[in-house]
Design goal:
alpha+beta; Alpha-D-Glucose-1,6-Bisphosphate, Chain A, domain 4; 3 helices; 8 strands
Length: 204
Amino acid sequence: MKFKNLVVLILLVGWTGVILSDEIPKFTPEQWEKLEKGKIILTNELKKTDDGEEHALIGAYLIFNQPITTAWSLMEHPEWQERYLPDLRYSKLIWRKGNQINVEFMVKILFFKLYYRVIHTYYPDKYFFRWSLDPKYNNDLKYLYGEWHLFPLKNGKTLAKYLAVVHASFLIPSFIERKLMKDNVPKNMKAFQKWINSGGKYHK
């Protein structure tokens, strides 16, 4: 069953689509040590978007044990996300056109099955891509936007920055929303990191 306007935290996938930031933050030595050990740094803030509402902006920083070209080549295939993301039931390629890729997803969270299509737009010269809902599809999500930005490190590894807008409708109790935000982000980020680190060999 589809639940129109039900919005939950989903890690893959609008906004006007501007790059929120293309700079590496000034991490403390302690934060760099944490990142180099494979840990993930999470951020959370409120952001007013182009619909005039404030939404939770979820951020994550992590290091991939792969050069930036390898990480980028894997991230150019969002249709493979069903292989490694825990809550994702399927991801199906709809079309590829130029620097854009449309993928249909189905995710099950709690008692809900959510169907939606996402258009990913890639900027290879900046190692950056963003995604938002396909406006032509009858999505079960009301609002969704996210982006990844990659930065090469001197040791041959890659620093990755993830940002996504998260909004839950009144149908989701606030305590469930907080749990989703607390549990799903680290879990999915860790799965993504394992997949990139393995060169795409890791499967859930």
